[in-house]
Amino acid sequence: MYIPAHFAADAAAVQELLARHGAADLITLTEDGLLASMLPFAYEPSAGEHGALLGHVARNNDQWRKPAQGESLAIVRGPDAYVSPSWYAAKAEHGRVVPTWNYVTAHVYGRLVVHDESVWVEDVVRRLTAKHEAARLEDPGQAPAWSVDDAPRAFIEGQLRAIVGLELQITRIEAKAKLSQNRPVTDIPGVVAGLAARGDDRSAQAVEHANDGRTEARREGRHPARSGN
Q1: How much is the CA Rg of the chain, to the nearest whole Å?
Q2: pLDDT per residue over 122-154, tens digit each?
Q3: pTM for this structure?
């Protein structure tokens, strides 16, 4: 992945993305070519040197059956959004502006391990449920949290037999946060306002946070250098 220095995600941003992301695209190279599945993962930072992503697939999914050759890849995404040139103050100043796309993503590489033990698989299901139920409850007006134990045990056991666990033991991560850091600081308020007006609060907050230092410097009368594209 091409990562200009001003779009490189720092370690804290990467940890936040891995801990709070939704689903990711798991891509493996097999003797039959590339295979891909979109899967929710739970991040376990204490597993191995670089942590691990834990998830599961349907037993009928061939991806777990066909051994991965070399590293496997999970593409993890944060907020992403179209950015209109109409939001830039620079449009009114000189008009030399074009559309772009803002996004946060991490390419997580690692060794894929298959787990077909019911205890391991159930633990992952419980982790994923707790993670996403907690995220859901951050919004007001939600129904009470659901737990695996709310369903009949025999039903859960049947569901567990239909899935297989996956562990991506992380070997390296390439992460990028392209959030208008290459734009003049005077363009940032317009981007934040434009995204918020569309109801994309996640993208708006990400842009605001990524440019906090630059906007604060401008308020204090300092002049941070403008990054290249």
Answers
A1: 21
A2: 999 999 999 999 999 999 999 999 999 999 999
A3: 0.90
